[in-house]
Specification:
Layout: H1 3-19, H2 23-34, H3 44-54, H4 61-69
Helix pairs in contact: 1-2, 1-4
């Protein structure tokens, strides 16, 4: 899979967790999946997401979904 395909796949999987109501599992899934691709393993969004998570900015399903879907 190329970078774009892998990122889309990771976002889809994370969104599936959100659809089930599992906000923290969505984040964990995204992180784990991005770390499986050489071009995404050090994606700056991972650090930004951790900061946002720690500051309480990704508590809701809608906030997490927006963050995940805005990944590029």
């Amino acid at each position: 899979m190329n970078r774009t395909e892998h990122l889309d796949w990771a976002k889809q999987r994370a969104n599936e967790y959100l659809d089930m109501g599992f906000i923290s599992l969505a984040w964990q899934s995204l992180c784990a999946d991005l770390m499986k691709h050489n071009e995404l393993i050090n994606h700056p969004g991972l650090a930004i997401g951790m900061q946002k998570l720690n500051l309480g900015h990704l508590k809701t399903e809608s906030a997490m979904r927006k963050f995940i879907n805005d990944f590029s």
